[in-house]
Amino acid sequence: MIEARALTKRYGSTVAVDGLSFDVQPGSVTGFLGPNGSGKSTTMRMIMGLDFPHAGQARIGGRRYRELRWPLREVGALLEARAFHPGRSARAHLAALAASNGIPASRVDVVLGTVGLHGAGRNSAAGRRAGKFSLGMAQRLGIAAALLGDPGVLVFDEPANGLDPEGIRWIRQLMKSLAAEGRVVFVSSHLISEMANTADRLIVIGAGKLLADTTVAELSAGSASLEDAFLDLTMGSAEFRATAAGRPDDGPPGAPQAGGYPSYPGARRSS
Amino acid sequence: MTAIAVPSGHYRLRHVTRMEWIKLRSLRSTWWTLALSAAAAVGIAVAVGLNTPATSRHEDLTSNLLGGVSAGLLLTGVLGVLMMTSEYASGMIRATLAAVPNRRLMLAAKAAVFGAVALALGEATSFIAFLTGGAALRHGITAPTLSQPGALRAVLLTGVSFCLIGLLGMGLGAIIRHTAAAVAVMVGGVYVAAQAVAAFAHPLLPYLPIPIVANSLSASRPMTHDVPAPLSPWAGLGLLCLYAVVLLAAGGWLLCRRDA
């Protein structure tokens, strides 16, 4: 399991993560939810030993990340879509990572198949320069890298980014089946609807602080919808929250309704 | 924790070295840059051979023929920089450090792999430049041979300089992390600084990387008429090693303390 204890990270005078403590248990998908800029990615990087906390610590199965014996066989992570060199093929990228942790080379083709990057030739998805990948393909390569060592703990930062509806359904089912196999699945999102479909448990943060450590059912119980419950919970902690947050009567006459985001010319809202 | 079993043992230098070797060999740009380094050095050696006048027959022809390596060294040094900075530019560094959280071990493996490749390329380049440049000599000038005093040492140490300048670049890359800035410091510090020092602080010239390669490592006999006198080949080699080690150590120290 993943344990965060009083994790704190500051950038200059800004506190990105503020005394954050939580546990992530195996066997269920745990959503990590918070508005943009609430410290989700920073927390995940600290769990992965990439960023150093100013205080507190994160442990995986009782050990800090840097103490893991075979990191990729214990933890798989997708932290950003393009954590690979653009000139290298997907297959070479995965082969290099496999070699670092003594993972059999045969796993490379297994995970390439799992994520749907097939082919053997130089012009196939797996064989050509990965720099030309669409965001969705890059995301699939990142997921392949996470699955490479068949790890018991999986950490995904916004895995649905750039995936088409079919891809989103696929990643959702993948996460559920990984959890059903008894793995720890910790997945961040700023999209409450995506979490409602995927997660069993929710850890909600705002401005780096823990707001709720609960289940999807519990959180949505007191509100009209899970979205309402989330917005009530994170009210006041979002980094970008327009004054007219969902209330058109607060905005200047004729101004576009901001809906929780700063309004600017040409802004497109997805809902 | 979970039902997923983790095998015994733990990752070691040999695993990380294998990763770095796959990373290096799977980029076509690496091989193009290395080939260009070698071609520049050999091409200049042939040009020097063809254009050596009869009056130069008593000069240190070995050193003259190996003079072209400084162009090749520039590319190898920049490639060393890129070995580190391209990881930051692409985000690969986070995949690398998630696989190998022991950062010192990662840098050691990277330096070992790139150092070995640069050394092999450097030695091959140095020997080929010496032999083809010698074959291109005209005007009845006898080509220098490896059996002449100091010639073999000069050719070997010139080959080593590719490895050391490459590692020096890698150390700079680890310290600076941004490609453009690190390349600028590499070119500025190693090449442009030599010009400035030659103009304003002449006595320091023998201690700079390129004069060490050109006047100490590639010389088959002491350049007695030079003022200030160059370092001896072995002193020059030691100082160049020291530069590479200090920069790599500083890069490793920072790597272990900064967020990736």
Structure notes:
The complex is a heterodimer of chains A (about 270) and B (about 260). Helix content of chain A is about 30%, strand content about 20%. Chain A is of the alpha/beta class. In chain A, the strands form two sheets. In chain A, strands 5-6-7-3-8-9 form a six-stranded mixed sheet, sandwiched between helices. In chain A, strands 2-1-4 form a three-stranded antiparallel sheet, with helices on one face. In chain A, strand 8 and strand 9 form a beta hairpin. Chain A is globular, with a radius of gyration of 20 Å. In chain A, about 45% of the residues are buried. Chain B is an all-alpha fold and about 260 residues long. In chain B, about 70% of the residues lie in helices and about 0% in strands. In chain B, helix 4 crosses helix 5. Chains A and B meet through helix 2 and helix 3 of A and helix 1, helix 4 and helix 5 of B.
Radius of gyration computed on alpha carbons of chain A = 20 Å
Beta fraction of chain B: under 5%
Strand fraction band of chain A? 15-25%
Q: What oligomeric state best describes the polypeptide chains here?
A: heterodimer
Order of helices and strands of chain B: HHHHHHHHHH
Structural class of chain B: mainly alpha
Note the gap between the termini of chain B: 28 Å
Q: Number of helical segments of chain A?
A: 9
Instruction: Tell me roughly what share of residues is in helical segments of chain B.
Output: over 70%
Overall mean pLDDT of chain B: 91
Mind summarizing the main beta sheet of chain A? 6 strands, mixed
Residue ranges of chain B: pLDDT <50 for 5 or more in a row?
none
Low-confidence stretches of chain A: 241-271
> How many runs of DSSP E, i.e. beta strands of chain A?
9
Q: Report the average pLDDT across residues of chain A.
A: 86
Molecular shape of chain B: elongated
Q: What's the total number of strands of chain B? A: 0
Roughly how much helix do the residues of chain A carry, as a percent range? Answer: 25-40%
Order of helices and strands of chain A: EEEHEHEHHHEHEHEEHH
Q: Choose one word for the global shape of chain A.
A: globular
